[in-house]
What does this fold into?
Amino acid sequence: MAQVVVENVYKSYRGKADRADRVDESKKADIALSKDKTQPVSVLRDINFTVEDGEFLVLVGPSGCGKSTLLRLLAGLEELTGGNIKIGDRLINNLPPKARDIAMVFQNYALYPHLNIYDNIAFGLRRNSGADSQEKVRSSWWESALTGTTRYAPRSMRYLSAKEKQVRDRVRYVASLLQIEPLLARLPKELSGGQKQRVALGRAIARNPQVFLMDEPLSNLDAKLRTQTRAQIVQLQRQLKTTTVYVTHDQTEAMTMGDRIAVMHNGQIQQIAPPLEIYERPANRFVAEFIGSPAMNFLPVDLVSPLKLVSPHFTLELPTIWAKSLEHSQVKSLILGIRPQHLAVDAESPSNIQIEVDLVEALGNETYISAHLTAQPDTTLTVSLPPDKRLRVGDRLWLSINTDKIHLFTVDDGRAIREGTRSATRLR
Ligand SMILES: Nc1ncnc2c1ncn2[C@@H]1O[C@H](COP(=O)(O)OP(=O)(O)O)[C@@H](O)[C@H]1O
Ligand SMILES: [Mg+2]
It folds into this structure.
């Protein structure tokens, strides 16, 4: 078990893909944009974070933001352009993957097709069979002779070396942990996607590494299996207490799995914090929009006095908790953020917004509606309502904004303005 420290990490690729064969179509398009081969493409910039010993950190962000690149740097599959990576107190910048004591699980399982499940899990254990001690050399000739002569004997009569017995115990332990004992004799092609993914996890666990790196391991599973396997991975990680970095583009996975979440965008970390803090106090507009489903709504407003927001269509009085961070501001344009569940159907009033319903999605436990402002059809909102509200496309209604739940962002760079005394950013 160990802490992982990432310091000032930068990664750029030369203009041309160095491994074009591995790059998918969307990336090829990006790469094609930088025709100038001398111009490096910057993929990660100024990445700093520490994963504590035993912690489960989720890296989340949209496709192409650099998550896999960062994980591959940790694994030693890519070279750093700048910065340092430490595992425990070892600087591992230049160590090859094998020497880093990490295990990686990918989206596409990567099992050996010709080996059965037992041997797939055992493979890494046999390969890492430790130092070539003298004893091993001495014993190897008669052990291989015994193994060879008993190979075709019934299973219980076959010779197993001490090493192979250790491997067997480890494979059995992992198989019982993941409940895949009945699958050990099968080939990968005889397994379902979910089972293959559990074997891939098993192979990583069997090696008992200091760190697990997982790159979208659940993406190939159907929704139900994904939810089950998600819970199972979290449980296993708690049990094993192995430091884990888990990559996903799925905000639900991030919210439900991580001790902390690092939200990435355009090669940079936007915020790193526990899930609920990210949700309740997003550092900027990108994080606010990316985390939470359906996504937060944004409306342009003007601050006309320290606690008064106006838009062409409504006027809001802010709770006094905002006074401190907004006191010195003059009239200023801001972006108001409000989550769909913090809007409610209400009466006509100057502080409320009139909308017209465009789409109704009744999920049973709640109903999402998409709507536009009647006074400004190009401004749209998503609202989450209790299921008893029966609405139809074209209905007009008034919405109130729960002012205890609003977020404010600057217009220029989308930074969040903090309410309350713990204010991180004040508006000047
Ligand atoms: N070998 C490469 N050469 C050049 N650019 C690359 C290479 N691999 C990845 N990239 C670039 O790095 C960006 C981040 O890729 P990646 O880390 O795979 O993103 P994610 O995993 O977040 O979807 C991509 O947009 C792509 O342009
Ligand atoms: Mg990726």
Residues 67-68 surround magnesium ion (ligand 2) (CB under 6 Å). The chain is about 25% helix and 30% strand. The two ends are 45 Å apart (CA to CA). Residues 4-278 form a domain with the Rossmann fold fold (CATH 3.40.50.300).
